[in-house]
Specification:
It is built from 16 helices and 12 strands. By secondary structure, the chain is an alpha/beta fold. The protein starts with 6 loop residues before the first helix and ends in an 8-residue tail after the last strand.
Length: 416
């Protein structure tokens, strides 16, 4: 293991025996009441764990129990994730195990201990705030990893957001059509057609801009990812739509002009709660009279959002720095404060679970190609856990994804 790259994974944290013992007692008590099994698998790491038996409870296999409990005692759920990255535990059904934990998330810690939560959680680092410089760095850390890496597991459209399938469970052969269905529904919500002046906040790899241009729209799409911008511009040029689409490296806060439609797909999660007022005010400022905003957003229940809003999590440390998933109430409230109102809202949480399953299966099947790109086994375990953790969030309905239509309170723009 590269200790320079993975310092907090390479070393088992030093923590007091008391904290470790408390963590062991809480975890064993919590897991003992859940529909899962715990099995010791010796002191070795990275041993093969056979797949689970269909219908049987998932099994948490502990390769190194002492390290597992020490990490949780030191860093709570961050330690739980780092322990997986280190190979100290596995499961015969990782998604099933994480789904059980997500379903019972409110019951894992006894109620009297909830007030001691601060002893095991950390505050989000100040450097992760989405200032203009911070947002560029946060986006760079995830989306600029490698276009080739994302191409290994995404569908041919390179869409990195939830698809909308025509039937569940989904089959790999329907993936591209499901991603196009998602995009087309958003473009329909925003009433995008010939001559529409469309702003897209968060380019991705350009598929939405391509489909909007094919409808005859004039598209401006902005991103902070240099890797995504380069590939999106090349794809748009190859498709013959360079005259209809401008791809810019630009912070959404710096965009000027008025647009008939604004579309943003799973970008609000990267904004950060501190900047939600500015984000929604920017949407309103950029909207032409009579215009429409179509968002696709991951959401979580409001009470859970409040509980995690200032918490540094494993996801925020390793996968999405600076991000926070909003609640539907937060979106509605921030929109209203900016002069926007929610006109339509449809959820597709089960479709995101299927999207993530297909991504995860493709990612795992491409482990040799991932290695060839220079990503090590710790990275692969980190991404396996990220994809499984996210899938479990949607399967447990802890998370949801929604397509939301917003319009202006003053549709003719007299007050703006």
């Amino acid at each position: 293991m590269d200790a320079t790259r993975w310092p907090d994974v390479a070393r088992t944290p030093r923590t007091s025996p008391v904290r470790t013992a408390v963590a062991r007692r809480i975890v064993e008590r919590a897991l003992g009441r859940l529909p899962l099994r715990i099995r010791l698998h010796g002191a070795g790491r990275d041993k093969a764990v056979p797949p689970g038996v269909p219908g049987a409870p998932p099994t948490l296999v502990l390769h190194d129990p002492d390290a597992f409990y020490r990490r949780i005692g030191a860093d709570g759920l961050i330690g739980f994730g780092e322990s997986y990255m280190a190979g100290e535990w596995d499961s015969d059904d990782l998604v099933g195990l994480l789904t059980v934990l997500a379903v019972h998330v409110d019951d894992l810690v006894p109620a009297p201990l909830h007030r001691m939560r601060g002893a095991w959680v950390r505050r989000r680092p100040v450097q992760d705030l989405n200032t203009r410089a911070g947002a560029r760095e946060n986006i760079h850390r995830h989306y600029d990893l490698s276009n080739e890496l994302f191409a290994l597991f995404l569908d041919p459209s390179l869409s990195y957001s939830s698809a909308v399938f025509d039937a569940l469970p989904a089959s790999p052969g329907t993936f591209l059509a499901a991603q196009h269905r998602k995009i087309d529904r958003l473009l329909d919500l925003a009433d995008v057609g010939a001559g529409t002046r469309l702003l897209e906040i968060g380019t991705g790899w350009g598929e939405l801009a391509l489909r909007a241009a094919a409808r005859g729209a004039q598209v401006r799409t902005v991103t902070l990812s240099e890797e995504q911008r380069a590939l999106a511009a090349r794809r748009i040029g190859d498709a013959g739509h360079a005259d209809r689409v401008r791809v810019e490296l630009c912070d959404y806060r710096d965009v000027e002009g008025r647009y008939d439609a604004v579309v943003s797909v799973e970008m609000v999660e990267a904004v950060g709660a501190e900047y939600w007022p500015e984000y929604f005010s920017t949407l309103r400022r950029l909207l032409a009279p009579g215009g429409r905003v179509a968002l696709q957003a991951i959401t979580m229940p409001h009470d859970r959002m409040l509980a995690t809003a200032r918490t540094h999590t494993w996801i925020s440390k390793y996968v999405f720095p600076g991000g926070l998933i909003p609640s539907p109430e937060a979106i509605a409230g921030e929109s209203a404060a900016a002069g926007l109102r929610v006109i339509d809202c449809v959820s597709y949480g089960d479709h995101y679970a299927e999207t993530l399953r297909l991504w995860r299966e493709r990612f795992l099947s491409e482990h040799e190609a991932v290695d060839a790109l220079g990503f090590d086994h710790v990275f692969r375990r980190m991404w396996e856990l990220y994809l499984a953790y996210s899938e479990a969030g949607f399967r447990s309905h802890y998370l949801d994804v929604r397509q939301i239509l917003l319009t202006a309170d003053d549709p003719h723009g007299e007050n703006r």
